[in-house]
Design a protein that fits this description.
Number of strands of chain A: 12
Helix content of chain A: 25-40%
Structural class of chain A: alpha/beta
Strand content of chain A: 25-35%
Order of helices and strands of chain A: HEEEHEEEEHEHHHEHEHEEHH
Number of strands of chain B: 2
Largest sheet of chain B: 2 strands, antiparallel
Helix content of chain B: 55-70%
Strand order of the largest sheet of chain B: 1-2
Structural class of chain B: mainly alpha
Oligomer: heterodimer
Chain lengths: 268, 335
């Protein structure tokens, strides 16, 4: 069996490719199929919200894009290049850790549980990756970090430790930390699910600003109001595949599929 | 009986009487729960303590005058220094090797994994004193120690075993290698206690596994491991007394040297005991300080401090009150 099907051979290096292409991705954990042949594109500057019941595979899908999860079949492309593997001649090779790290550094990721580094201050959290990965000059990194903290409204918290911040503040720091690597794509894994209701708004508003600035974003979320208002496309997933995909006014406002209707009726 | 009730000299027998009277009850007027067990316990301990003090003061065999003579004598002081030196170097060397072994244990590489497993199995399974003797007698096993390429007869460095392994080196190796096996398991547990999300966050920022380990995971793991490391240091302090079998003049051996001459066995063992206790107390105090410093930016989830290394340091001795809400119950394990 050859590693490449002929249809993929031309695509891999095409410049007209969308920023992210998910092509027939399959993934199982043991006997349980989590993703059953998922395909979609996300164009540069697009905001794409993935909604669906828990267990539908949306978080796994997101984690496959930056290869926090490996995939069993299919392919994910980012900036036209396959993620996690390299094409040499006619064969695909698993990437070296250095290459994968480089590819990941161009995709930011936000987690439900923030995952700030608890032993570092807010400022140190933001400058850590630029210093270590990009070898940015320290002074320059600090200046940029302060600008980013200003952008998420936390310039007064630069010297605080994460444990002394509210959940909403922590998630905003996490956004600044990701932005410090100047990613071309931001992945959000239920960024507001762990927050108290009154703190959700501040995080969503930072995300809205990002979207308005033209950042390409893929957001797994339960916030229907945010999806309806900020998303260019909404994907509804259930049982490991995409049930419905389209502009929010259609998928959320006027769903066609029975499963989409049932899900929206439950969450509204 | 609440204050208000006392003032008005009222008693109530039924719920109805109470509500009819219009008196308001206040929880702060409640008489604290009596704890007779604590008083009885304290009394027993005091009696036992009194007996001990009486023994220490009145028994002439303790020869406190001799203890006083030797407590700060030159030979004991140099033994004390040697004990400290051994403890510190064996701990540092043991931790250094332990970190490497722990990282090998955690590595995805199956070869490193098995090698480190075997290392831990071996060095944790042998009593330190057996190791000391073995290292000391290495010359009987092999006359020369060489560094080179095997099978090609290339040798960069070759020394006779007897010149390389002095009693001190043998002691250091035995103690440090034993410690490294324990430290490796401790550090591995510490690394595994750091949430997986930390590694994921680091790699999604483009850090390589090694960078993420060094900068993000290990600092957090070491913080978790600080209390057991100090625990091991105190053990190590005591284990160094084993080196007296190799005639290294540490604290215990120095004391032995004196009493083998003067036959003042008990007072000289007392001198050693006093110094071991002093040193382990100092280590405990340092541990307490370091833990406090490391807790920086890392308050326990519920905001309560963890249990201090010494009882009563924060909570005082409260024999008569119930636990104050801010201190008890101490969270289990580490904060």
């Amino acid at each position: 069996m050859t590693a490449l099907s002929t249809s993929n051979a031309g695509i891999a290096s095409s410049s007209s490719m969308p920023l992210v292409r998910v092509d027939q991705v399959k993934k199982s954990f043991g006997a349980q199929t989590v993703l059953d042949g998922v395909s979609f594109d996300v164009a540069l500057g697009e905001v794409c919200c993935i909604i669906g019941p828990s267990g539908s595979g949306k978080t796994t899908m997101l984690r496959c894009i930056n290869r926090l999860e490996t995939i069993d079949a299919g392919m994910v492309y980012f900036e036209g290049d396959p993620v996690g593997v390299r094409l040499r001649g006619e064969k695909l090779y698993e990437m070296k850790p250095r290459e994968l790290a480089e590819q990941r550094s161009r995709m930011g990721m936000l987690f439900q549980s923030f995952n700030l580094f608890p032993h570092k201050t807010v400022l140190e959290n933001v400058i850590e990756a630029p210093l270590l990965v990009k070898k940015t000059d320290r002074e320059k990194a600090v200046v940029e970090a302060k600008q980013l903290l200003e952008r998420v409204g936390l310039s007064n918290k630069a010297d605080a430790y994460p444990d002394n911040l509210s959940g909403g503040q922590q998630q905003r720091v996490a956004i600044a930390r990701s932005l410090a690597m100047r990613p071309r794509l931001m992945l959000f894994d239920e960024p507001t699910s762990a927050l108290d209701p009154e703190l959700v708004g501040e995080v969503l508003s930072v995300m809205r600003d990002l979207a308005n600035d033209g950042m390409t974003m893929i957001v797994v979320t339960h916030e229907m109001a945010f999806a309806r208002e900020a998303a260019d496309t909404v994907i509804f997933m259930d049982g490991g595949s995409i049930v419905e995909r389209g502009v929010p006014a259609d998928v959320i406002g006027n769903p066609q599929e029975v499963r989409t209707k049932a899900f929206l009726a439950r969450v509204h | 009986m609440s204050l208000e009730m006392e003032k008005r000299n009222m008693t109530f027998n039924t719920q109805q009487e109470l509500s009819a009277s219009g008196v308001r009850l206040d929880a702060k007027d409640a008489v604290p729960l009596r704890r007779p067990g604590r008083w009885i316990g304290a009394a027993i301990v005091l009696v036992l303590l009194g007996m001990l003090v009486h023994l220490l003061v009145t028994n002439p065999n303790l020869q406190w005058e001799v203890v006083k003579t030797y407590l700060f004598s030159g030979i004991i002081m140099s033994g004390l220094l040697r004990t400290l030196e051994l403890t510190a170097t064996a701990m540092l060397l043991g931790l250094f090797i332990g970190i490497i072994i722990a990282l090998m244990r955690l590595s995805a590489n199956p070869v490193l994994n098995w090698v480190s497993w075997g290392y831990i199995w071996f060095f944790r399974g042998i009593p330190p004193i057996v190791q000391l003797l073995f290292w000391y007698n290495l010359a009987s096993l092999t006359e020369k120690l060489s560094l080179g390429i095997p099978f090609f007869h290339v040798t960069f460095l070759s020394v006779t075993t007897n010149s390389a392994i002095s009693p001190y080196t043998a002691a250091l190796l035995g103690l440090a290698l034993t410690e490294s096996a324990y430290a490796a398991e401790m550090i591995r547990a510490g690394v595994q206690a750091v949430s997986r999300g930390q590694l994921e966050a680091a790699s999604s920022l483009g850090m390589k596994r090694g960078q993420a380990m060094r900068r993000i995971v290990l600092p957090q793991a070491l913080r978790i491991v600080i209390p057991p490391i100090f625990n091991d240091s105190i053990s190590m302090l005591k284990f160094t007394s084993l080196v007296s079998v190799l005639a290294i003049p540490d604290l215990l051996y120095s004391a032995e040297e004196v009493y083998s001459r003067t036959y003042q066995t008990i007072p000289l063992l007392l001198v050693a005991t006093i110094w071991y206790l002093v040193l382990s107390t100092i280590l405990t105090v340092i541990e307490h300080r370091v833990e406090g410093r490391l807790r920086r930016g890392h308050a326990s989830k519920d905001g309560r401090p963890g249990r201090p290394a010494m009882p009563g340091y924060r909570s005082r001795w409260r024999l008569w009150n119930g636990p104050s809400p801010s201190e008890e119950p101490a969270p289990i394990g580490l904060s």
